[in-house]
Design goal:
Blueprint lengths: L1 E5 L9 H7 L2 E3 L2 H5 L3 E6 L5 E7 L2 H13 L2 E3 L13 E5 L1
Parallel strand pairs: 1-2, 3-6
Antiparallel strand pairs: 1-4, 3-4, 5-6
Length: 94
């Protein structure tokens, strides 16, 4: 199961219910999510990361990325080798 957290003071995206409905997520503290091997950030309409999703295993990470892509969200780090803002992938609306 993937771990997730909402970041305090940041408004969730309008599509957030779709994320929580499509992915099996366990709500934990931000520190617990950041302790995972791979981190996915999700941006809201203002361009702020509001949700972090953490995966321990590569196949869980890949499944989450595929599910977010199926929702027509775009990974801004798809063509980048390094992490940004502490994330391996950052999804948002195109």
């Amino acid at each position: 199961m993937l771990k997730t957290t909402l970041l305090d003071g940041v408004t969730p995206a309008t599509f957030d219910k779709q994320i929580t409905g499509n992915l099996l997520l366990e709500s934990v503290s931000p520190d617990e999510v950041r302790a995972e091997k791979m981190i996915i950030g999700v941006r809201n309409g203002d361009g702020d990361i509001y949700r972090l999703i953490g995966a321990t295993k590569m196949n869980s990470y890949v499944n989450a990325v595929e599910e977010l892509e199926d929702m027509e969200l775009v990974d801004e780090l798809a063509d980048v080798e390094e992490t940004r803002e502490g994330c391996d992938a950052i999804f948002g609306e195109a």
